Amino acid sequence: MNQTVIQNSSYLISRNGIYYYSRRVPADLHKRFNKDRVIISLRTRSQDKALRSAATLSDRLERHWESLRLVALISDTGMRLSEAAGLHVNDFHLDEDIAYVDLTPHP
Fold first, then answer.
1. Residue 68: its pLDDT value, please?
2. What does the pLDDT look like over 73-101, one tens digit per residue?
3. Would you say residue 48 lies in a domain?
4. Cα–Cα distance measured from residue 41 to residue 57, given in angstroms and rounded to the nearest whole number
5. Is 5 helix (H, G, I), strand (E, B) or coil?
6. Shortest CA distance to 49 belongs to which of 9, 7, 16?
7. How many structural domains is the chain composed of?
8. Which helix (H) or strand (E) holds 84?
9. What angle do CA 44, 16, 38 make, to 5 degrees?
10. How far is 73 from 66, CA to CA, in rounded Å?
């Protein structure tokens, strides 16, 4: 297999003339992403098209990774926030048609 790494290009490699987007998953997201690397065929032999596609993929992937980090932050700190607000587990009504949190004070 003929593989070339494109210098000064965002996460591009070329295998047998076809461009691929290849990027390492940040270490803090390995567990949540279940992969060490993202590799996606860009299905093109054109470097210009590959560069545009890679830029779009980088932007989307960064946003996805940020959302995973936000979910992790919320889930990691959620119990502490609810405790700080004085909420009990019975205050959360998630099985209703419209989920809600009962904010009635507790003695």
1. 84
2. 666 666 556 665 677 778 888 888 888 88
3. yes
4. 11
5. strand
6. 9
7. 1
8. helix 47-84
9. 65
10. 10
